[in-house]
Amino acid sequence: MSTNPLKRAVSDTVELRKEAGRWLKERREERGLSQRQFAEMIGVEYYTFISQLETGRGRIPPDKYRTWAHALDMDARDFVLALLPFYDPTVYSILFPNNPTDGQSHV
Fold first, then answer.
1. Domains plus CATH for the chain?
2. Each residue of 47-58: b (16+ CB within 10 Å) or e?
C-alpha cells in the first residue's frame, strides 16, 4: 500500500507547525508572559491568536517577525532562523545544507 505524498506533506506540515508552536510557547513562558500579556505586547486584539499559533494552527505572518522577536527579547535574524526549519524546511535546507532540520533551533 502506497502513501499519498500530498497527505504525507500535509501531515508533515501540521507536525512542524506544532513544533514551532511549542518553541514559541517556551520562549513566551521564559519571558514570564501570559498569552494575554503577549498579545498586548505585539498588538494582537485577541489572545486566542497566540493560543492558535502555539498549538500549531497557523503561523506568524512574516511582516510581524520583528515585532514578535522584539517581544520575545530576541534578535530578529535569530528569531527567523529559529522559525525557518519549522515554517519552511525546504528553504532552510537550501540555505543551510549542512544543518539537519531536526526541529531544533540552529541559532
1. 5-95 (1.10.260.40)
2. eebbeebbebee
